[in-house]
Structure to design on (469 residues):
């Protein structure tokens, strides 16, 4: 990805080999290489003709790059400076609702100086995806995002506890600045600052009006049927999947931000 | 987008050549024909590129100027997708006699790897879809993702070579704005058909 010189110049915090499956922090643009691995998806979905065994087995995730932190107002300012069509005065209604960049005082001014290092919020899926594309990246898939949070099984009780604490906190005027503690992969602020867009946020939604009484709602979705969840006590996971299922691509909200990913999904 | 720019440049060049070369009313005619920029809420702001069942490259905005009945799916889907196309055909059949050709029926494939224009053409023929009003579109992954987001169609590879995806039929007006959506294959198409008829009456 980068020459050895560039890595050295970047002041690397952690150097490790990908082959060994360890995280490498590329300090220059604060992206983490997440190693390939297995994880157990929370929401199990099986294809109509698949056996139950397929639906319950662990899924393999390929290695990918992920922003260490959510994208900040300062970073998003650079983007809208270079791409005027994404400024709040110019955004097309098809790409974002009328709360787009609501906290910004003008096209090129995030709320205040303190907001620079806070996650950018009130951005639609289209705007988030356009930002990532401008960096040669894209949004992480839901699976990649969940894999990063799952952290190879490390500290999951703390993740749940922090999630519940966060859900109970009232939304402040601003989310706190990025830079929380890193998980085992080296990823920060997955929980506690903002909800985050994923590339395929709608993929697990069941958005029909009519559901079968057994919850399979097969009339609304071609193909797969829900085959239960991995852990019915994982309330924060229910919250994450429900939140994503409630979104529309033009939707923006005070507590909804994003980070970018790279590499093949 | 690019075509429009070229057209604008050509028009500007003609203007520069001056009234001596082109009569005034020709110029006016040209101005009237120039496509208006899409409205703020128009789907035709999307820059995704598509190919139709005749392998011709078609921008989304080419659908503009007519009401469009649009859906996403993939041709090898045997479970629920045929019902989506059947619903669209039902809508087509229930239009006033002279109206069928004044409506565009658009089917966008989610399966960019398998649904080649040749496949789409065969599918259209097999289902007896009128090439005068039906277009079946092939796009790359980015195009599919962007349009699916705009139309609110969730989808995901099902791990068996197919996709799970929402069954959504959208009515899009001549400006490219979504008027109404029908979700679920068991839903009635009455509301969408009524909205389509009132669009057609408005522009009669």
């Amino acid at each position: 990805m980068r020459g050895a010189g560039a890595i050295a110049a970047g002041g690397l915090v952690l150097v490790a080999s990908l082959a060994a499956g360890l995280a490498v922090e590329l300090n220059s643009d604060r992206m983490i290489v997440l190693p390939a691995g297995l994880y157990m998806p929370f929401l199990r979905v099986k294809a109509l003709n698949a056996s139950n065994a397929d639906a319950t087995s662990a899924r393999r995730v390929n290695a990918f790059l992920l922003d260490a932190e959510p994208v900040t107002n300062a970073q998003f300012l650079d983007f809208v400076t270079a791409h005027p069509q994404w400024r709040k005065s110019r955004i097309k209604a098809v790409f974002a609702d009328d709360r787009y960049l609501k906290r910004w005082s003008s096209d090129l001014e995030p709320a205040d100086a303190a907001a620079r290092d806070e996650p950018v919020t009130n951005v639609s899926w289209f705007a988030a995806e356009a930002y990532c594309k401008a960096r040669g990246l894209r949004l992480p898939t839901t699976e990649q995002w969940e894999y990063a949070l799952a952290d190879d099984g490390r500290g999951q009780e703390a993740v749940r506890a922090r999630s519940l604490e966060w859900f109970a906190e009232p939304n402040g005027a601003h989310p706190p600045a990025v830079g929380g503690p890193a998980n085992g992969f080296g990823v920060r602020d997955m929980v506690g600052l903002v909800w985050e867009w994923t590339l395929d946020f709608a993929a697990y939604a069941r958005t029909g009006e009519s559901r079968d009484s057994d919850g399979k709602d097969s009339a609304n979705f071609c193909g797969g049927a829900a085959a239960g969840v991995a852990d019915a006590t994982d309330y924060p996971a229910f919250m994450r999947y429900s939140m994503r299922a409630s979104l529309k691509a033009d939707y923006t909200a005070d507590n909804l931000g994003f980070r970018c990913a790279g590499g093949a999904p | 987008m690019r075509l429009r720019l070229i057209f604008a440049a050509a028009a500007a060049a003609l203007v520069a050549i001056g009234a001596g070369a082109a009569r005034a009313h020709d110029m006016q005619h040209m101005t009237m024909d120039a496509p208006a920029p899409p409205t703020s809420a128009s789907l035709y702001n999307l820059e995704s590129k598509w190919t139709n069942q005749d392998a011709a490259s078609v921008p989304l905005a080419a659908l503009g100027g007519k009401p469009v009945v649009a859906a996403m799916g993939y041709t090898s889907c045997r479970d629920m997708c045929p019902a989506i196309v059947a619903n669209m055909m039902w809508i087509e059949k229930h239009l006033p006699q002279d109206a069928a050709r004044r409506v565009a029926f658009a089917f966008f494939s989610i399966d960019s790897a398998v649904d080649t224009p040749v496949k789409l053409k065969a599918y259209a023929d097999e289902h007896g879809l009128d090439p005068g009003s039906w277009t079946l579109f092939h796009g790359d992954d980015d195009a599919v993702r962007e349009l699916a987001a705009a139309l609110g169609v969730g989808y995901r590879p099902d791990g068996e070579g197919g996709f799970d995806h929402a069954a959504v039929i959208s009515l899009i007006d001549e400006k490219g704005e979504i008027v109404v959506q029908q979700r679920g294959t068991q839903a009635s198409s009455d509301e969408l058909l009524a909205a389509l008829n009132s669009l057609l009456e408005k522009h009669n």
About this structure: Residues 93 and 100 of chain B are 8 Å apart (CA to CA). Chain B is about 35% helix and 20% strand. The longest strand of chain B covers residues 68-73. Chain B touches chain A through 37 residues (CB under 8 Å).
